[in-house]
Structure formats: C-alpha cells, structure tokens
C-alpha cells in the first residue's frame, strides 16, 4: 500500500493524475465513483481537466453505494449527487454511470444485478474511495464480512450522525438502510485510491495503514490489495 502525505489540493491532483493516465491509455476505462466530501476536490480537478480537453465520452462509471428509499429527485440520493458533482461536469455519456437501485422493489435482486453489471463491464479499473470516521468504505460498516458483495446494510448511528449534515442537520432524515458494494466487490477493482483529510479521520487512517486486518475496521482489507494508494493530509496522517 502506497501512502502519500501532502496538502489537500496536491492529493486531489494526484488522484486526478491517476484517472487521467488511465483515460489517456484507454478511453473505455471503467471508473469507480464515491460520494462524500473527500472526493469533491478530485471531481473539481477532473472537471477542470475536461475543460482542457480530457474526454470521458467512452468511459463508464460505477457508484459505490446508495441510500434505500430516497425519492428519485431527492438531492442527497447518491445518483443525483454523482450527477451533480461529476457526471454533468464532464462528457460521460448518458447511461454511462450506474449505481445500485435503492428504489427497487426487490432489493436483493437489484444487488445481484449490480454485481453482474460490474462484471459485464469487465470490472472497475480505478476506484475512488473516502473513509468513514469508523473505518467504513462505501457503506461497509464495522463488522462487515471481508468477503462481502453488493447487499443491503443498516447504517450505524455514527454514520447517520456523520451524514446528518447533508440532511439539514437532522439524523432522523438520514435513511436507515443502504445498498453498498461489498468489501470483496471493492477489492476486485484494479486500483484503489483512497482520500482522507482532517483530524476526524486520523484514527481510521491509523487503523487502515497500521492496524491489523479486521472486519471491525473494514478499510484495513485494503492492506491486501496489490495496488492501493492512500492519499492523506497532515491532519489525517497525524496518528501514523
Ligand atoms: C459516506 C459514504 C462513503 C464515504 C464516507 C465518508 O458514508 N458512503 O463512501 O467515504 O461517507 O464521507 P466524507 O468523505 O464526507 O467524510
């Protein structure tokens, strides 16, 4: 696992460099997109590079996770967040971004279909990741099976509190369930690029880099990945 400690703007450029390198080598690159605040600077940088000629027209993208039950037009529905933060700012083709369907009537079937869609696309080339304060990646909360695939999960109190800021500060407005790629799904991407900034992430980053591989700190599974890059600022790295 490669760990880079640098200022936040430099981290965003490094992640964008990895995406750009892949797109230039293979315009049909399959990207893995994350929500949350951590990747936003990367998306800003990619939008800038798109203006300078970087094309996503033949690329495809898969989202990590989705809330269950948020209405199709809810601004915090992850599909809408990804559309706003990145897809609409570059030239990804309509339909090129897929995500788990949190409004499906048959949620287990939607999860299985999503796994199949990722496999049919040949897998994810580069997966962008953030990390929760409790060490979750995507919505794989502590205790998640290290062998898990896309499935329904119950959000922890901690994550619902962390994410309440996106729902007008009200924990009650945060959905209780989500669909998320599993840890094994994420591990099958060919390159993992995780970004973390700020002191609130310091313990999770400490566990990720230096802790034992454990389902109690789900991100630690990344230690077993052959090509994982961890991009952190000084504050997030303060416990290393
Ligand atoms: C959410 C998302 C994760 C994200 C995490 C951290 O729970 N499902 O994919 O990594 O939050 O978010 P942030 O980057 O805003 O700290």
TrEMBL record:
<dbReference type="InterPro" id="IPR006148">
    <property type="entry name" value="Glc/Gal-6P_isomerase"/>
</dbReference>
<comment type="function">
    <text>Catalyzes the reversible isomerization-deamination of glucosamine 6-phosphate (GlcN6P) to form fructose 6-phosphate (Fru6P) and ammonium ion.</text>
</comment>
<dbReference type="InterPro" id="IPR004547">
    <property type="entry name" value="Glucosamine6P_isomerase"/>
</dbReference>
<feature type="site" description="Part of the allosteric site">
    <location>
        <position position="153"/>
    </location>
</feature>
<feature type="domain" description="Glucosamine/galactosamine-6-phosphate isomerase">
    <location>
        <begin position="8"/>
        <end position="223"/>
    </location>
</feature>
<dbReference type="GO" id="GO:0042802">
    <property type="term" value="F:identical protein binding"/>
</dbReference>
<comment type="similarity">
    <text>Belongs to the glucosamine/galactosamine-6-phosphate isomerase family. NagB subfamily.</text>
</comment>
<feature type="active site" description="Proton acceptor; for ring-opening step">
    <location>
        <position position="136"/>
    </location>
</feature>
<keyword id="KW-0021">Allosteric enzyme</keyword>
<dbReference type="GO" id="GO:0005737">
    <property type="term" value="C:cytoplasm"/>
</dbReference>
<dbReference type="Pfam" id="PF01182">
    <property type="entry name" value="Glucosamine_iso"/>
</dbReference>
<feature type="active site" description="For ring-opening step">
    <location>
        <position position="134"/>
    </location>
</feature>
<feature type="site" description="Part of the allosteric site">
    <location>
        <position position="154"/>
    </location>
</feature>
<feature type="site" description="Part of the allosteric site">
    <location>
        <position position="151"/>
    </location>
</feature>
<dbReference type="GO" id="GO:0019262">
    <property type="term" value="P:N-acetylneuraminate catabolic process"/>
</dbReference>
<dbReference type="InterPro" id="IPR037171">
    <property type="entry name" value="NagB/RpiA_transferase-like"/>
</dbReference>
<dbReference type="GO" id="GO:0006043">
    <property type="term" value="P:glucosamine catabolic process"/>
</dbReference>
<protein>
    <recommendedName>
        <fullName>Glucosamine-6-phosphate deaminase</fullName>
        <ecNumber>3.5.99.6</ecNumber>
    </recommendedName>
</protein>
<dbReference type="GO" id="GO:0005975">
    <property type="term" value="P:carbohydrate metabolic process"/>
</dbReference>
<comment type="pathway">
    <text>Amino-sugar metabolism; N-acetylneuraminate degradation; D-fructose 6-phosphate from N-acetylneuraminate: step 5/5.</text>
</comment>
<keyword id="KW-0119">Carbohydrate metabolism</keyword>
<feature type="site" description="Part of the allosteric site">
    <location>
        <position position="144"/>
    </location>
</feature>
<dbReference type="GO" id="GO:0004342">
    <property type="term" value="F:glucosamine-6-phosphate deaminase activity"/>
</dbReference>
<feature type="active site" description="Proton acceptor; for enolization step">
    <location>
        <position position="65"/>
    </location>
</feature>
<feature type="active site" description="For ring-opening step">
    <location>
        <position position="141"/>
    </location>
</feature>
<keyword id="KW-0378">Hydrolase</keyword>
<dbReference type="GO" id="GO:0006046">
    <property type="term" value="P:N-acetylglucosamine catabolic process"/>
</dbReference>
<dbReference type="InterPro" id="IPR018321">
    <property type="entry name" value="Glucosamine6P_isomerase_CS"/>
</dbReference>
